[in-house]
Amino acid sequence: MAIIGKIRSKAGLLIGIIGLSLVAFILGDLLTSNRSFIQGNTTTAGIIGGKKISIQDFEAKVQQNIENYKLSQGKDQIDQQTTDQLRDQTWGQMLNEELIGKQIAKTGLVVSSDELFDMVQGNDIHPQIKQAFSDPNTKQFDKKNVIQFLKNMDNDQTGRTRAQWVNFENSIKEERLNQKYFDLIKNTLCYHC
User: How far apart are CA 116 and CA 123, in angstroms?
Assistant: First the structure.
């Protein structure tokens, strides 16, 4: 009983210590995780390879990826989980563009217009093109479907079809460029084996 009596007599002090601890915890969290609260609005989303990435640039790319996703999935709205995944994907793309893109540029590797043509309607059709333009019933790919699509895509008065196609072409072109770079590295490493 004596211990309970001591605790009761010191209750005010105990409550004060707990309150002070909570205030210190909250202020510490504000100072470490949200510096913009004290410093005003920051304009940097992050730094990649020494280059500051502005929030505006990052958010613009996120919005572009959200719109591309909506177009490809035929949706008008997406849920928060998908938005978060697209934000993470966007940051990964920016990392790739900044870090690997610089290295690719140094090598002089490119994807020529002839090579892109070959990936879309030539002899080395990209797997995503084959998938998108295969007959749903027979699962057979026909180049005529691609050519017909390309001829008719400007019939869409909103321009969404062309925008979607340009984004798609850019993504397969970037994929091919990355593959060339990684093949170059692999061949270089294997050459010295």
Answer: 11
CB contact burial 145-170 (16+ within 10 A = b; e otherwise): bbeeeeeebeeeeeeebebbbeebee
Task: Please state whether the predicted TM-score (pTM) of the whole model is above 0.85.
Answer: no
35-80 pLDDT, tens digit per residue, is 444 455 578 888 888 888 899 999 999 998 898 888 777 788 999 9
For the stretch 88-98, pLDDT in tens is 999 998 888 88
Contact 163, 88 (CB under 8 A): no
